[in-house]
Amino acid sequence: MHADEAEVDEALVRRLLTTQLPGWASLPLRRVPSAGTDNAMYRLGDDLAVRLPRRERAAHSADKEARWLPALAPLLPLAIPVPIAFGGPIEEYPWPWYVHRWLPGDDATEIPIAEDIGAAQELAVFVKCLHGVDLPGGPGPGAHNFFRGVPLIQRDTRTREAIEALGGSVDTEVVSSAWRSAVSAPPWAGPPVWIHGDLVPGNLLVRDGRLSAVIDFGGLAVGDPACDMLAAWRVFAGPARQAFRDVLSVDDATWARSRGWALSTALIEVPYYERSNPLLVSNARRTIAEVVADQS
C-alpha cells in the first residue's frame, strides 16, 4: 500500500521472537487479516498478539502507546490493547514492535454496525470517557499521530487536493460545499482532550453482538474532540448517528467540524488506496455519500 512499506512476514516475526522474546518463540503464529494500513498483526498462541509497524510513520507511535495505554486502559469502558512486552529493530527490520494480549472479536468491517443504536451508544460512552480523562502531560497532535486533532483548517490544502484528484468520481461542487461548511465552523475553544484519532470500523471489535474493544491507538494525542466524532459518519448512519450524538451532547460547531473530519479523511483515502485497499475505499466512499446526504 505504501512506497516506504517494510516486508513483514511470518518468518520475520518468528526471527524477532526467537532472538528477543524466546519464551514465546515456539507458540503458533498466524497473520491476522486486516484492512489496516500502517501495522501488521500476528496472533501468537491463543492469548497474545504481535503488532509491527509496516512503515516509519507508524513506528513513531510505539513509545507513546507504551507510555500511555497502560494508564488509560483502566479508565475506559471498552478493552484496549495494552503492550506487555517489547522488541527492537534488527538488520532486516528497522523499528520497535510489541506484544499485547489478544482481544477477541471481529472488526466492524466484518460485522457492520452502521444502524446499531446500541453500538452507537456504547462507542459514544467510550468517547465521552476518553475525552474526560484527567491525565496530564499527553502529547499534542503531530507527526506521531498523523496530525489527528489539529485545527480542521490545517487540513484544507490536502482536502482540496484530494477533491481535485477524485475528479468526476465525486460531485466536486457538492463535496467542496460540504467541506467549506465544515472548515468554516468555529474552532475548538476548550482545553485539548485525549483522542483516539481514528475511530473507523476496522478499529472497533464486536463480540456476541456488542462492542468489545477499540484498537489501534496510533492516532492517540490530546487535541480537538471533533476528530473522534468522525465515527458518526465513518461508522454509523441514520438513527444510530443521532444516538451517538445524543450521548455526547455535541454542540453544533463541534458536530460540524466532526463532519469535516469524516469528509476530509475519506476524501484523502480514496485516491491513495484506490488500487491497494478496496475495503477501506468502500468505507471512505460510503462516508462521503453520508456526509453529502447529511449536508443537503
Task: Give the structure's gist in a few sentences.
The chain has 296 residues and is α+β, with helices and mostly antiparallel strands. It is built from ten helices and ten strands.
Order of strands across the main sheet? 1-2-3-5-4
CATH superfamily of the largest domain: Aminoglycoside phosphotransferase (APH), C-terminal lobe
CATH overall fold name of the largest domain = Aminoglycoside 3'-phosphotransferase, Chain: A, domain 2
Mean pLDDT: 93
Low-confidence stretches: none
Helix content: 40-55%
First-last Cα distance: 34 Å
The radius of gyration computed from the alpha-carbon positions, rounded to a whole number of angstroms, is 19 Å
Total of domains: 2
Number of helical segments with 4 or more residues: 10
- CATH architecture field of the largest domain: Alpha-Beta Complex
Provide the descriptors you would attach to this structure in a database record.
296 residues, alpha+beta, Phosphorylase Kinase, domain 1, Aminoglycoside 3'-phosphotransferase, Chain: A, domain 2, 2 domains, five-stranded antiparallel sheet, three-stranded antiparallel sheet, 40% helix
Describe the structure.
The protein has 296 residues and is α+β, with helices and mostly antiparallel strands. The protein folds into 2 domains: 10-103, Phosphorylase Kinase, domain 1; 107-295, Aminoglycoside phosphotransferase (APH), C-terminal lobe (Aminoglycoside 3'-phosphotransferase, Chain: A, domain 2, Alpha-Beta Complex), CATH 3.90.1200.10. The chain has 10 helices and 10 strands. The protein has helices spanning 10-20, 56-59, 62-72, 117-131, 156-166, 172-183, 231-234, 238-248, 252-273, 278-295; strands spanning 29-31, 39-44, 48-53, 83-87, 97-101, 106-107, 193-195, 204-207, 210-214, 221-223. Strand 1 (29-31) and strand 2 (39-44) form a beta hairpin. It is globular and about 55 Å long. The two termini are 34 Å apart.
